[in-house]
Amino acid sequence: MAERLLFLDCDGTLVDSRRRQHALFLELAPQARYGFDEYWTRKRAGANQGRMLADAGVTDPQALEQFRVEWLRRIEEPARLAQDTLLPGAAEFLDRAAGRWTRVLVTGRQSREHLLVQLAQLGIADRLDVVLNTEQRLSKPVLVRSRYAACRPGDLFVGDTGEDILAGKELGVRTVAVLSGATDEGTLARYAPDRVVASVAALDAALLEPAAA
What we know:
single chain, alpha/beta, six-stranded parallel β-sheet, two-stranded antiparallel sheet, 42% helix, 15% strand, globular
């Protein structure tokens, strides 16, 4: 039987990028003064950057646009990426999937060069068979279809956001939401993933077993 496709988000699924994101938010909007835990509690409950900025008194359209531009320009600077760590159990999970699955990273990262360097530094570059990044230009389903003409129902999409679950559904594959990233369980449930687990480390053998076509 041919290997099935295992689509994996990056930040919040395999990589812990919370400190990088929190630090840059405070640099760009120091008046916000959100502590690390408060920032991520609000983010996981569904507050986007616009809402968090508004609650901190940043409402001027020009200031909001400047924040957006600077965020995109600076969030993937190599020195910032060095703050990221591998989520516990991620490497072992990728090893368990080896051989039976084609492990495809599908991420919204802009810079492929910086992404590949980071994956190597984190020790998972050789644990991924394909790396796809949207460059903030394409949706994840469109990007996947540019590489794979068709997916099968037994394929799997694993991610930490509603966007990931919707991407999997659009591709017609099974979906698993992980609670290790940017969205809490209540919010993820609204997207009706096939399964919700604490992290990729909690994906059991039965779920990793490729389903019949």
